[in-house]
Recover the amino acids of this structure.
């Protein structure tokens, strides 16, 4: 199975997208096709043993469009590629300028007589009706020529019996222009036969200005819409701009400036202060403070030394490093993030299905309504001009684009905004499901807690605190036990000098021993002290208190006498309690899952404010718990970071992987947090709710616009209120509808998912932690 992205030319509305998806779904070998109207692209999953990209492109061509396989490029090249959609915007801008150049004088001459604007005498009066009509005709032709692509696409769709928005415009403009030509001939006939009254009547009802204004306003709407679309995808464009065009590469001891595309894995690149790291790699020499905010959202720079990994696209704020390149091009972390964001933005949210179904039958229905409106008004005794006005207005005001753009515009803007906060959403469906979830399961280790033990308490007995820590760290420095690392690190941070250990001995299940400066030092658990007949009464109460709070207690003795205890624990993350409080305020039932002892789980729950914990759980137990919750019709979010969380992440309705976790967990998840910060999970939920609220607003206005606009254009309110919409006003309203939907989606670019807001909370579901 293979998945490819194609750039599609010739799509202009939701009906186009629906027709393309429907046409491809029946093709041999194609298992799935998603068309993105926002980016004029499609993602196709197919069996490469049955079909290939060339065959898919041919199928698209028979449907009526042009598809070009998107070439996966590096995040940067010596020559930056044009921003997606930029060629289209440039073409629309040029078309708009030409249209305005001729439409403005055309409109002036058409409306000047009614508005008493000064008009040249040669174009005014009953005697000059033919000159006036010919002038309007000649001014209209360049506008029609500028909009020829609309006519080509519209006629092609009509011929294939798959009408789209362009078809509505073509029928409307074509009818207006045809009526104008008819009027022009009637004027010429009236002048030649001396019937100046008839000539004057038709010169006042030419409809050339309607045809030109419709096309110009549609072009204006498309141009503004294309510009707005560009803004919704600016997060992806910013990611693409992160990698520098050139890199300083060290080859054979000589530094070369070469295009990023020529850098290979294994090369040594030089990064100076203020420079961008060109590719993923490992520091081989030097020191630098690196700003990774564009990738992870982490605001503070991170120190990078020899042996540390660095990510392409990040910036060295200070220092000098040499980096051995480990990944280039499409294999870099940045390229994978860009691909992830693009694929998610191309996906369809379930809420869009209703709009897609409506869009598929929308255009034929509108054509039928226009015909019915014209026939009804003719039967009611109105003249052909009145019936034509109503029919044209119905055709022009109807806009399937607003329906088609309602969901993808918000999805793209929301996913792009999430990426700027280090929240990577893999699919639009995950974003919608996340919004409706009611239960949140949290893994403990690495998710709620730091994921590594730290020293929390040092209680000496008969020696100083520094002496206890020095002896303990000197002994533990010989061990590979996980608790040895934090003890040694604590001593180093206190600038203590470790001492030489001889006669080192490991006692399985109990602890370690050794000789330091002639004294026998023991370190281990309570069992070890008991086996060596060392009394622990003096610190037993303190040790039990520490153990009750979920901490691991190590005893240390010198020459068969207890000298103190050191406690270590996997401590709560700094933002853990704040994030849990945010989850509860949003109406979620929060449950912690852990394989640890119940006492440890309860201690962490008390610190974090979690209401319920399930301890002693194996990976399969976590998955079974999710299945049980789903059987009770719960929508479950699972947040985890380890390999043991992968089954649960895959089983949950939405799996969220902490970015600092394992690749397996990240692969199984639907959403990836680039930072190891639980607050980002709360931010992801806030973002999903903001996006879904925006989509519902867009769909509401798109439906309401058509529900009100089409009857108004058909003249339904004419008999009661005298309201009748001109085709020009209808064209302006149609352009505004698409623009308003995209503009509303743009508001997501200013969303602050990292900030709590009442709009994200579910009232009446707040709970106080035990």
């Amino acid at each position: 199975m293979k998945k490819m992205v194609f750039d599609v030319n010739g799509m202009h509305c939701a009906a186009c997208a629906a027709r393309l998806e429907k046409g491809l779904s029946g093709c041999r070998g194609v298992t799935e096709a998603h068309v993105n109207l926002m980016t004029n692209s499609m993602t196709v999953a197919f069996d490469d043993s049955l079909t290939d990209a060339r065959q898919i492109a041919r199928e698209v061509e028979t449907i009526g469009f042009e598809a070009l396989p998107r070439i996966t490029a590096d995040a940067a090249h010596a020559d930056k590629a044009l921003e997606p959609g930029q060629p289209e915007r440039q073409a629309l801008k040029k078309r708009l300028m030409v249209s305005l150049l001729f439409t403005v004088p055309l409109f002036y001459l058409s409306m000047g007589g009614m508005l008493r604007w000064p008009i040249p005498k040669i174009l005014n009066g009953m005697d000059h009706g033919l000159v006036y009509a010919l002038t309007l005709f000649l001014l209209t032709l360049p506008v029609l020529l500028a909009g020829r692509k609309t006519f080509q696409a519209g006629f092609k769709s009509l011929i294939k019996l798959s009408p789209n928005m362009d078809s509505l415009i073509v029928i409307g403009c074509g009818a207006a222009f045809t009526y104008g030509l008819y009027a022009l001939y009637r004027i010429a006939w009236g002048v030649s036969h001396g019937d100046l009254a008839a000539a004057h009547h038709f010169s006042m009802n030419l409809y050339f200005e309607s045809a030109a204004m419709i096309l110009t306003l549609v072009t204006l709407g498309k141009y503004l819409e294309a510009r707005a679309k560009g803004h919704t995808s600016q997060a992806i464009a910013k990611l693409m701009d992160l990698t520098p065009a050139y890199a300083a590469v060290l080859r054979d001891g000589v530094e070369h400036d070469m295009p990023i595309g020529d850098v290979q894995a294994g090369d040594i690149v030089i990064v100076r202060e203020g420079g961008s790291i060109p590719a993923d790699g490992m520091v081989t020499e030097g020191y630098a403070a690196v700003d990774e905010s564009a990738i992870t959202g982490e605001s503070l720079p991170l120190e990078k030394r020899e042996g540390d990994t660095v990510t392409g696209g990040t910036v060295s704020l200070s220092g000098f490093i040499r980096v051995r390149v480990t990944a280039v091009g499409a294999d870099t972390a940045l390229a994978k993030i860009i691909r992830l964001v693009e694929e998610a933005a191309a996906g369809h949210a379930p809420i869009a299905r209703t709009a897609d179904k409506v869009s598929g039958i929308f255009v034929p229905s509108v054509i039928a309504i226009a015909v019915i409106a014209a026939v009804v008004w003719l039967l009611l005794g109105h003249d052909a001009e009145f019936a034509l006005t109503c029919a044209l207005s119905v055709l022009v005001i109807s806009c399937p684009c607003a329906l088609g753009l309602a969901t993808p515009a918000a999805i793209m803007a929301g996913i792009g905004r999430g990426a700027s906060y280090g929240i990577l959403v893999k699919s639009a469906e995950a974003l919608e499901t996340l919004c409706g979830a009611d239960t949140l399961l949290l893994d403990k280790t690495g998710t709620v807690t730091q994921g590594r033990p730290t020293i929390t308490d040092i209680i000496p007995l008969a020696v100083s605190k520094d002496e206890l820590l020095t002896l303990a760290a000197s002994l533990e420095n010989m061990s590979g036990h996980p608790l040895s690392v934090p003890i040694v690190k604590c001593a180093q941070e206190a600038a203590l000098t470790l001492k030489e250990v001889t006669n080192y001995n490991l006692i399985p299940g109990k602890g370690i021993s050794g000789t330091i400066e002639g004294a026998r030092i023991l370190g281990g658990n309570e069992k070890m002290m008991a086996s060596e007949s060392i009394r622990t009464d003096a610190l037993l109460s303190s040790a039990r208190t520490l153990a009750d709070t979920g901490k691991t207690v190590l005893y240390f003795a010198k020459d068969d006498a207890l000298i103190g205890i050191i406690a270590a624990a996997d401590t709560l993350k700094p933002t853990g309690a704040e994030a849990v409080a945010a989850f509860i305020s949003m109406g979620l039932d929060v449950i912690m899952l852990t394989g640890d002892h119940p006492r440890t789980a309860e201690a962490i729950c008390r610190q974090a404010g979690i209401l319920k914990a399930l301890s002693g759980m194996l990976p399969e137990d976590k998955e079974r718990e999710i299945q049980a919750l789903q059987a009770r019709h719960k929508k479950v979010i699972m947040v985890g970071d380890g390999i043991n969380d992968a089954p649960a992440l895959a089983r949950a309705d939405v799996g969220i992987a902490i970015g600092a976790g394992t690749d397996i967990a990240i692969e199984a998840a639907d959403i990836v947090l680039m930072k190891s910060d639980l607050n980002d999970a709360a931010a992801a939920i806030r973002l999903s709710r903001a996006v879904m609220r925006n989509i519902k607003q867009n769909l509401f206005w798109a439906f309401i616009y058509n529900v009100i606009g089409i009857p108004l254009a058909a003249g339904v309110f004419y008999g009661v209120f005298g309201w009748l919409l001109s085709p020009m006003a209808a064209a302006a309203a149609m352009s505004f509808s698409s623009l308003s939907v995209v503009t509303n989606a743009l508001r997501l670019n200013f969303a602050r998912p990292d900030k709590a807001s009442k709009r994200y909370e579910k009232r009446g579901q707040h709970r106080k932690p035990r």
